[in-house]
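Entry:
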Amino acid sequence: MELEKIMKENQIQLEDIPEIDLYMDQVIQLFENKFGSSKRNEEEKVLTKTMINNYAKGKLFFPVKNKKYTKEHLILIALIYQLKGSLSISDIKTTMNGINDRIVEGDFHLDHFYQLFLDLTAQNLETFKNDLQNQLSTVKVEGEALEETASTDLEKVLMVSSLVHMSNLYRKAAERLVDDLAEEKTDKQEGSMDAKPEKKKR
């Protein structure tokens, strides 16, 4: 396993995002330039017009004006890019709802929030690097117990199974948090309805 390839994760930094609004083709090019090197193969697409249109139709980000995408749109699309690997479109919408509402209301420092996310991803990468090394060492020891002359492929199967299991645990934890967000929104809506004064009968 080539650790360098696995650890190759790019992120769109705040300084990568132009201050001017971009057309869709320019947005796609920006993402391709930044994430292209981490694609699994040449056929894989980082971002397409269909993807962006689906995100817009699904209301994963606030409406675009004059077919141009603002800095806020690019940050949201970068977050969606990360989320779509593990969450459904519906779960992503639930996750992003609060952020979109705050942006529309005009009282939210999205730059600061996104920088916090970037800081976390940098820490996650270091944690993952250490965990992966530990997993590889453990699998190597376990693999030696296999009574096979060529156990390398079996060690890889063990590693794949272990990594997928860990991935599933993290995904389930994320989904639980999404459910919490959905419940909180429902509670707020119900609370708002209860707070409305009753109309006086004539």
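The two ends are 77 Å apart (CA to CA).
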